[in-house]
Amino acid sequence: KLQSAAYHADQPGDVLVKTIASTITPGFDRLLLTNKPVSNKVFKYPIMPGSEAIGQVIETGPEVTDLQPGDFVYAFRGDQWTGIEPYAGNPCIIHKDYGTDIQSFDKTKLLEEYNSFEKGDWQAGSWSPSVMHVSVWDLIGGYSVEFSPAHYSDPDVAMKLWHAGVRIFKGVGRSRVYHFGSKSTGRFKKPKAYYRYILKWGITAGTFTKYYLQMGKPYNGPLPEPVFGTSMKLKNLFKQIVAVFKA
């Protein structure tokens, strides 16, 4: 059954958004309509469906200065999140193993501990979930179909944002999501997106995230323009030549 729930933007950084339009996600819709999940994922009701939406700000919490009631935004499950993952090696995440799939997931322990980890805001990219103003979303044309399903779509949309003049890519340390890692995209055959990205932008996604976005470093404001030496320029030129034959 459907039921109402009351929410308020009463915490620092909170933004309450009224959904105007939401995407259609076949897997989740099938679950709601037939109660038959497309994977081994198990939900406990009550749940709030939906993953991304366009909406209007109706309330802002303390310390919110860049949005006000009436603004339109594109939202994908909150702000640019900080992942809690079972796999180490990523400077953007909190490394803690609470399971690698729904069967081994220790929800109780996660809820007990997730807020105790030290993690400040960090220089981010465009990993989902993320938030951008709807005018910016329209300006860049959203995600590019040539990188579907979700292979290099994140650094691609971040590069489009960069070319549109965006220099603030902020990962919010307080916004935390537990992430099993590649459970959806791992089911698909990976296209030659690595080389497709190079042909489109002239550099590798790794170069972009490291030298442009400075991903994973502590957040300290708008990003500067990168400066490349001769060796880096030659490296990316070589990658472009290889991509012509590989893509």
Key descriptive features of the protein:
four-stranded antiparallel β-sheet; three-stranded parallel β-sheet; 247 residues; globular; 7 helices; alpha/beta; 28% helix
Question: Topology of this structure?
Answer:
Blueprint: E1 15-22, H1 26-34, E2 53-60, E3 72-75, E4 82-85, E5 94-95, H2 107-113, E6 122-123, E7 131-133, H3 134-140, H4 153-163, E8 170-171, E9 176-178, H5 193-201, H6 205-212, H7 230-246
Parallel strand pairs: 4-5, 4-9
Antiparallel strand pairs: 1-2, 2-3, 3-7, 6-8
Strand order of the largest sheet: 1-2-3-7
Describe the global form.
globular
Mean pLDDT: 81
- Assembly category: single chain
Strand content: 5-15%
The proportion of residues forming helix, as a percent range, comes to 25-40%
- What is the CA–CA distance across the termini? 49 Å
Q: Please give the count of helices.
A: 7
Rg, nearest Å: 19 Å
> Strand-and-helix sequence, N→C?
EHEEEEHEEHHEEHHH
- Strand segment tally: 9
Descriptive report:
By secondary structure, the chain is of the alpha/beta class. The protein contains seven helices and nine strands, in the order βαββββαββααββααα. It has a four-stranded antiparallel β-sheet. Helix 5 crosses helix 7. The radius of gyration is 19 Å and the shape is globular. The chain is 28% helix and 15% strand.
